[in-house]
Amino acid sequence: MLALVSNAAVRNSTALARFNENTRVLKQAASSLAVPDAARPMLVGSNTIAFYAKVNYLPFPYCDAYTALKYFSKKKVRFLALSSEELAAAPYLREWWQNGIPALQ
């Protein structure tokens, strides 16, 4: 299962970790992903979303897209939180933002 989350509503906020009326929509979206403690899946992307979703966090690896997808599969990542503000964090993120996340072949 993949979740693509944009922080467009908080574009002018300097920190996603700060909870105010601008970040409420992000917190609500992340909270809707919350799962029981016994089944804490991995999330790659925003650690703030991982916190509110109550899932384990991994950062996006800096590598090519194919290697990143293999890494996600090996780590059993269930959610990806992709932010328009963090597209420079890894080489493949801008393409994924524009064209979607490809399936691992």
Structure description:
The structure is a single chain. The chain has helices spanning about 25-30, 45-55, 65-75, 95-100, and strands spanning about 40-45, 55-60, 75-80. The chain is an alpha/beta fold and about 100 residues long. The chain has one domain (about 10-100). The longest helix has 10 residues, at about 65-75. The chain is globular. The relative contact order is 0.20. The model is unreliable at about 5-15 (pLDDT under 50).
Largest sheet: 3 strands, parallel
Number of domains: 1
Count of DSSP-assigned helices: 4
Gyration radius (Cα, Å) is 13 Å
| Low-pLDDT segments, ≥5 res | 7-16
Strand arrangement across the biggest beta sheet: 2-1-3
Helix content: 25-40%
Please provide the count of β strands. 3
Shape: globular
Structural class: alpha/beta
What attributes does this structure have?
105 residues, alpha/beta, 3-stranded parallel beta sheet, 4 helices, 3 strands
